Amino acid sequence: MQSSAIFPLFYLPPISYFSGLKEFEGNFLIEKEEHFPKQTYRNRATIYSPNGSLDLIIPVIRGANAHTSIKDVRISNDFNWQRLHWKSLESCYRKSAYFEYYEDELARFYHEKFEFLFDYNLELLQWLLKQMKKDVSLNFTTEYVKEIPDKLDFRTKLHFKKEQAVTDAKAYFQVFDDRHGFKSNLSIADLLFNQGPQSRSYI
E strands along the chain, which residues? Predict the structure, then answer.
């Protein structure tokens, strides 16, 4: 019987992802054996721009489809998506309270080249957990198990096309909330840049 929750590996995950990790702290696995599903947070993050929500998408090499293992999906570096993402993060958060606090360390993820999406997301997640003072040992699935209890399966639960039921989504200051109001469940980057070390207590 499956007893551990299973989480996918996302790019700059939404806040609800970390709420889920906290709920199952010490008793979750990162999904390493699934096939790559398109149009998910696995290669997409949503941030707050002057015009509202903005999706940052990591391009993957054509051929990454439903039959490609997530750990084998290669990032496409045919154009400089890293520069585009970094410029977007800078323009959206340069005026936030804590962008400069994280800037130097985070910048390497937008200057170093990574071959595999899984490796990139994993290093980024480890960095994010470190910023939130989470000493978490990450363990991985060793086989794909399709049917597990819904309360333990976060592989399809967290999806940008679904309305997320975010419990206790208390408002915090956002750079552009005077234009578009508070937006909940954006990328963890939004919380970090606006709340800094207090992000841990928010979650």
Answer: 5-7, 28-30, 44-49, 52-57
